[in-house]
Structures are given as structure tokens and as C-alpha cells.
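pipeline/complex-builder :: batch 7 item 3
reading input block
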Amino acid sequence: MSVPHLWQRLRNEAVTTSRIHRPLLLVGCTLLIALPFLVGLGFGPAWVRVLDFVLLYILLALGLNIVVGFAGLLDLGYVAFFGVGAYVYALLASPHLTSHFPAIAALFPAGLHGPLWLLLPLGALVAGVFGILLGAPTLRLRGDYLAIVTLGFGEIIRIFLNNLYQPVNITNGAQGITQIDGLRVGPLALDRGLDLFGLRFSSLHLHYYLFLALAMLVVFISLRLQDSRIGRAWVAIREDEIAAKACGINTRNVKLAAFAMGASFGGIAGGLFAGFQEFVSPESFQLIDSIMILCMVVLGGMGHVPGVILGAVLLTVLPELFRFGAGPAQQWLFGRVVVEPEALRMLLFGLTLVVVMLLRPAGLWPEPRHRRELAQ
Amino acid sequence: METLIQQIINGLVLGSVYALVALGYTMVYGILGLINFAHGEVVMVGALVALATVKALAALGLPAAVQLPIGLAVAMIACMALGAAIERIAYRPLRNAPRLAPLITAIGVSIVIQYTVVLISGRSYHAYPELLSTRSFDLYGARISPAQIAVILISTAAMAVLLWIVHRTRLGRAMRATAENPEVARLMGVNVDRVISLTFVIGSAMAAVAGVLVSINYSVAHYQMGFVLGLKAFTAAVLGGIGNLAGAMVGGLLLGLIEALGAGYIGDLTGGVFGSNYRDVFAFLVLVLVLIFRPSGLLGERVAERA
């Protein structure tokens, strides 16, 4: 398509979109900006924190959605990339390396304090490389064989994070890395909070806006990828790999691209997580976390961006609801806490997974194209 | 030399438990093409039901020689019922659903089972009573305990029974036919639903045996014990070629041996840089290597590519 034509098309698209969606978009944006305040006022700061985590999980779920939803490659070790991103940030923005390696301390006399704009892309890059490392040997594997290898990969990364403290201390083992620098955007340290226009933006609020911006970016990238040449190639591979190959798709490169892309989203989320918590340990990157993210993707509706977002929101908020509700509800019903609230919470969560999948096997909000296929 | 024999014994014991559990995964996979993620929890329930039974029997004053067989039988019956229930509730309604839907219900069921157990018996580690003598035998300098002998003997017997069922009985023929092609099997008069249900029942019985054996061997049971065990067993099934019974046994034994030998020798081989805490890395690396050269496992048939 020639450039003037493309320009014309873009303008037309922009005009039609804005005509239909402008009021909706405006309301939506205002709501998203006001959300942490509304939630904070209504339910307290603990829920603003939950909101921050919702956004992190949206990043993760959308990353995994590229691998599982778009390209149809079942990945059970996705949290490894989250971990890689987190440790990249943690190592390059904490006193850990300088205090254990004199050579590094000599290079950086003021200590290692990598800036966000460098560490996030670096985390994405390193995670992407790990994605290719995982993808390359598994290209020939199909379906569930791939699942178990990715699972093993995730475990291998976690075991290394857990044990690489001897003979040289790189990850500090199970104790994790502490004193990580908080996230800063330019001169603004997010963990200090900010007073602006007579409004108090707490640390949780500021993180929310940063995460929101990145989540929006990832949503945008996901949507554009979906309709791009490579996105259609992914769907083709998902539906029938041999046919896709026969149509001239370089399945090897396209699959590797899916692994790398998905992994790099995970890496970004990991960097944000490390800076937000100011602490990382291997405990945050277990198999159950990979499974949780996979549940978000599948329960929401594989391959459908709004569905995946819905899945991430639900599966982050529901356990918290159960956590806050499980104890008091028993008090109210029986006058005392009959069963352990934590166990009850997990029980309800498991039941939710089963019931939702039984009622809506294609996910809560599946891709319309999928729905058509199922109806046939 | 003693270390080598000792690690081989440990590996065979561990491997026979893996093989037992792997058989459950592989049977279900062979017939439904589905990873039964809740299978590890069945192992755990088996161990805890047997424990409860043994405690009740001990309270009645019955001798240890009677406690173990009865405990095992009760555990097997409970797990068979549980396996059938899991299939009925979580898998049967989704038989024609997208491929990942049953995976999520399996994860859900697995969480539900774990925390139901927590609600009933708590989170603590349960000490297993000494049902067998703890006096070890000497074998060329290595030690083998009665519990370890029992693990090897009982699991071999269970596998022999399974092979007999699958290859020599009417039900076994129906199972193989269903695995081959469910539609045609149905046309030939096989009650496919019943066969699938019985597959889960048989697999769960094996899981119960595995659960009891592993708990006797380590003298402990715990609500999360099924998770890692199930994971390893599934790895073993894939290693051998999932869907293939002989493959599950070979994969199980091999994985057990790799872990034991890896744990025993990795420190010496790497000059102490990597310790036995890298045991699982070893196991998974071997898995990846095997799958690179044989993408459908050691004994797996080459899956015909869909045209």
C-alpha cells in the first residue's frame, strides 16, 4: 500500500473511531485515572495495592497470551521470565553486587543504581533472550511435551535463583535480594509519594499510574500484533502448523518470535515488581504462579485481549475478596471462625476455576472467531 | 562402590514410585489426550486415608501385619471413588471443549482437594507409624530397608496386575480400542464412557498404592506431597513417551535413577560447585535432552502428523 493511501486509511479509521468511541473513551480514561482514589476512599489503601497487582498481572497475562493464546504454545514455566526481569532489576539497582564483588564496587564507586528507562528494556531484552533459549530446543515438540519442558525450564530457573549463592554469591539464594532501589521516573521517586494540586498521591497511587501506562502500552502492542502479519502467522500456526508451513510461514522464526515477545513482557513486569516490592526472592516465582497466570489467560478467553484482561482482574481480585471475606463471613454466620480462613479462601478459588470452566469452556469472554467455530 | 550400589537402590525405590504414578498419567493421556493434573492429589489422599485407617486399627489393637494390608485396601477404594468422581465432575462435561479447558478444571480440582484435606486434617506433617521393621539388610556394603524392599515388591506386583488387565482382559481390550479411536470403539459396542471412568479408577488405585508406599518409605505424609510427586511422575511419563505403559515404567525408573545418581555424584563431578540441591535441574535437563533427540519420548511412537 502506498504511503498516501495508508495515511488516508489511518485518518479514516481515526475519524470513525473517535466519532463512535470518543465519549466512551473519555469516560473510561477518567475512570481509570480516578480509580485508585475511588478504591482508596471506598475500601482503604490495601485495595489500591491490589489494584497495582491487578495491573502487573495484566502485563503478565497479556505476555503469556501471546505464547499460549495467539501462537497456541502451551507454556507452563512463564513465571521464569517474570523472575529473570525481576532479578535483572534487583541486581542492577541494589547494593548486592557491589558488596559481594570488589571489582564491580571499584567500577561503580557510588553503587549500582540503574535508571528505570535502562533497566526495564534491559530486563525485557534478557527475558527475551531466555525466551529464545527456551524456544530453540523445543521447536519440534508438540502440545503437552512442550508443556512439560517449559515447566521444567521454569523449575530450573527457580532452582538456580535459589542456589546461586555459592561458590560465588550472585542471587543470594532463598534469602533474596533486599534494599532494591524503588522505581523512579525522572526526578520523581515513586515510593515517596507526591503532593500535587493539593492532592496527596501516595506511593501506591504513583505506582498505579506507572503500571497503568505500561499496561496500556502492552494492550496497544497486543492489539496491533494480533492483526499484524506476524499475529496472523501465529494464529495460523495455532490452528494448523503444517498448513501454516505449507503457506510459506517460517514457523521456526515465528514461534521463536512468540516466545521472545511473551517473555519480554514478562521481563518488564518483573522489573516493575522488583522496584515496587524493593525485595525479590525465588519464592515469588514458583510453578503455582505460572499456573495462576495460565488460568487467567484460559479463564478469561485465550487469544482475546479484553478476555485476558478480564481473567487477570478476576483472578487477582477474587482471592483478595475471599481473603477479606472468609473470616468475617464466618463470624457473621456462625458467630465464630469455624474453619481456617486461608484454606477456605483457596477452596473457594479452586471451586471458582472448576465452575467457570464447566459453564464457559471457551473462557468468560472468548474471541468472536473462536465462538463461531465452536457454534459450527 | 558402596555409594554406587546405595544410590542405585535409592533410585530404584524412588523410580518404582514414580512409575506407579506415571502409569496413571499415561493411561488417562493415552485414552483422552489429557493431562490429569489432579492425579498427584489422589496420591496424597491415598497416603492420608491409609494413615487414618492404620491409626484407627492400631487403636483397636490389631497387629501391624494386619494394619498395612487393610489400610492399603481402604486407601485404594477411597481413591478409586475419588478418581471416578474427578472424571465425572471435571472432565466428562468438557470432553469436546477446547483443549485447555479441562487443564484448568484439573488445576481447580487439585486446589479443592488440597484445601479440603487442610480443612479436615490441617497443614502439619503427619508422622507415619512404623509398619515394617526398620532393621536394614546389608547388600554388598549398601543398606536396604524392609520398607524399600516392600516398595519395590508391591509396585512391581501392581504393575504386573495392570499389564495383565490391559493386555489380557476384556476391559483391557476395550481400553486399548478406545485409546486407538473412541468413535470406532463405540461403534464396535464398547461403552466408552464406562471404559474412561474405569481407566481413572484403575489409575487412582495405583496412585493410592504409590501414596502409601512413598509415605512408608519416608515415614511422613503431608497435604502438598502429591504436587511434586505428581510433577515428577508426569515428567517420567513424558520421558518414556506419554500414552505408552512400558514407557511410563521405563521413564519412572530412569528418572529415579537419574535423580539418585545425580544427587550422589553431582558434587564430586563438579568439584563441589553444584551440590545435591541441583538434583531437579539434572532430572529436567535429561528430559530436555531426550526430547530434543526423541520428541515423543523414549518409547513413544512417532505421532502421525495431522494432514
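note: The mean pLDDT of chain A is 87.
queue -> next item
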